[in-house]
Amino acid sequence: MSTGTSKDALDKLGAPGTGVVVTGGASGIGRATALALAEVGRPVSLWDLAGDAAAEVAAECAKRYGVTTHHAAVDVADRDALARAAGEAVDALSTVGGLVHSAGMVRPDQTDALGTDTWDTVLTVNLRAQVDAVQALLPALRASGPGAAIVGIASIEALIGEGSIPSYVASKHGLLGLVRSLAHRFGPEGIRVNAVCPGYVETPMMAMPLTIDGYRERLEARTPMRRLAQPEDIARAVRFLLSNEASFISGVPLTVDGGVTAAGGQ
After folding, report:
1. Which of 38, 98, 201, 211 is the most buried (most CB within 10 A)?
2. pTM as predicted
3. Please, what CATH class does the domain formed by 10-255 belong to?
């Protein structure tokens, strides 16, 4: 088991040495992203509603890769909680030069998909929280030096539509607009902003639907590569966008879906 990362590995992956905050870091894509970043020597701060689980992932990152870590139980819908966690993360990691907003939710509802409560909750977590997290961490990102970058976890639903989850689809479309706007706004300061649009990923969010008879097979049939993504597939794309190898990439959605949208979802 590795207890550290060589300088050659860091140089190869173009990893800045600054810390990265990962919301939703206790499971799924967030957890995989934290581990992928720790693998190349980046300190990580994990924010999640599940504080104990975030602590476990932080400990795993530290044990496997010898990086500095921080964790906090955070409701990303709570602006004050985000501000407190930002201060703690900067104190713990010394510098924060990256943010990954992986916290997210979907609320399928065939009977009340346009209900106010559904919309307010989903858009707050998936979209507004990224704005609030950026606001809370902006001084640290500005102070971190070259290589500061932000990545939002969107979805292929940011590129297409799905009638059963309009709030989720709207939040992810909105995230792409936010990414483009922030890339324009912060580009002159050297802060890059991008999004990753995953396809069908085997995460805890997908655990229940995947128990439905035939559902996995239908998703695999729609994917030209004939498998579901693993969280690590998405995490490596996020790590790339946060690295110096992506130093002139900003304002773009990077689709990681095994060819689903290229094939029109057929």
Report:
1. 98
2. 0.91
3. alpha beta
